[in-house]
Amino acid sequence: MNQKLFEPRCLANSVQGYNFLMNTMPTSTIVSHAVKDFLTYLRQKGSSTHTIRAYSGDLAEFAAFVGALEWAEIDHVTIRSFLSHLFDKGNSKATVARALAAVRSLYKWLARQSIVELNPARLVATPKLPKKLPRVPTIEEMNSVLDGDAAEVAAFPERDRLMLELLYGCGIRNSELVGINLEDISPANGAMLIRGKGKKERMVPFGDAVMKALREYLPRRQAVIADSRQGKLSALQTTALLINLRGGRLTTRSVGRIVKRLATTAGLPSDVHPHTLRHAFGAHLLEEGADLRAIQEMLGHERLSTTQRYTQLTTKHVMEVYDKTHPRAK
Q1: Same domain for 119 and 144?
Q2: Which of 52-66, 83-97, 252-266, 283-297 has the lowest mean pLDDT?
Q3: Where is the domain boundary, 71, 96, 123?
């Protein structure tokens, strides 16, 4: 199977990509038919576009690899062979681990549908991945970004400042940021409604910095919409909190470009992206003594183990400070 068919870069958007993969996957086998049903289930459940895109490619390869085998003929040895096949094609450990996770998820769904009784993928060990902790900006570095003059590099400085304050001040994901509507903001309560992964909703508090940025941005937003050539925007479109200069909802790709430009202008590395600010939110809260469970709730993590990664980040930071400053460490 041509690997290029399943590279995300060739997909115009998540819906087109999903339809493309559904149309190119073999339809004559039991496995390929089940994969299509599973992907449909993921879409209906509200799984993220990134998850669906990744699972689509991985499971299409799995269906092609096992061919016409029946479920009873696929065991843990078959799945190990599939992973070996992926390694032979030059895929990284991370890519192979993701493919195994996709197969495991497929089997869990099959079990709930009473199609299979056992999950052979559970007997296959996940490839060991190197533990890479993301580089998190310090509190001082984040202040330099937030206190910088956005007007020097931004076409819409009021919006961009609010965007940075929300990403760092609330720890929300890029996709959650662009999904915020005006009615989701509750200034009286100092909180906002956030729609996370799987359509799960949570209330996230915000502070004075976000409130100030909101007051400066909202009049400018109204002026942009009034002056926009798209004056006939539907009510649904104009409910977006963050808009572009044409009055439409801001996209995650645009957010990524803006964050990188503002961060690098302030002297941060070029690999900064919106999720970097989310990491900084969690790590800095923990450094300042916040409760891990509270951080979990604000970040919208399903498992506490995911939030506990920030303890590693702060421990690393403490060690770096010790090594640089303590006289007996030199």
Answers
A1: no
A2: 283-297
A3: 123
Is a pLDDT exceeding 50 seen at residue 62?
yes
Confidence of residue 147 (pLDDT cuts 50, 70, 90): confident
Residue 211 counted as domain residue: yes
Let me know whether 119 and 182 are in one domain: no
Q: Write out the catalytic residue numbers.
A: 173, 197, 275, 278, 301, 310
Mean of the pLDDT values across residues 103-125?
A: 91
The answer to whether residues 114 and 208 belong to one domain is no
How far apart CA 141 and CA 164 sit, in angstroms, is 13
Total domains in the chain come to: 2
Same-domain check for residues 261 and 176 = yes
% of the chain surpassing 90 pLDDT: 35
For residue 13, the model assigns a pLDDT of: 41
CATH code (residue 290):
1.10.443.10
Range of the domain at 304: 139-329
Query: Does some domain include residue 131?
Result: no
pTM comes to 0.59
Domain assignment of residue 130, yes or no: no
Determine the average pLDDT of the residues in 215-231. Answer: 83
- Contact (CB, 8 A) for 194 and 204: yes
99 vs 135 pLDDT, higher one: 99
Rounded CA gap, 297 and 310, in Å? 14
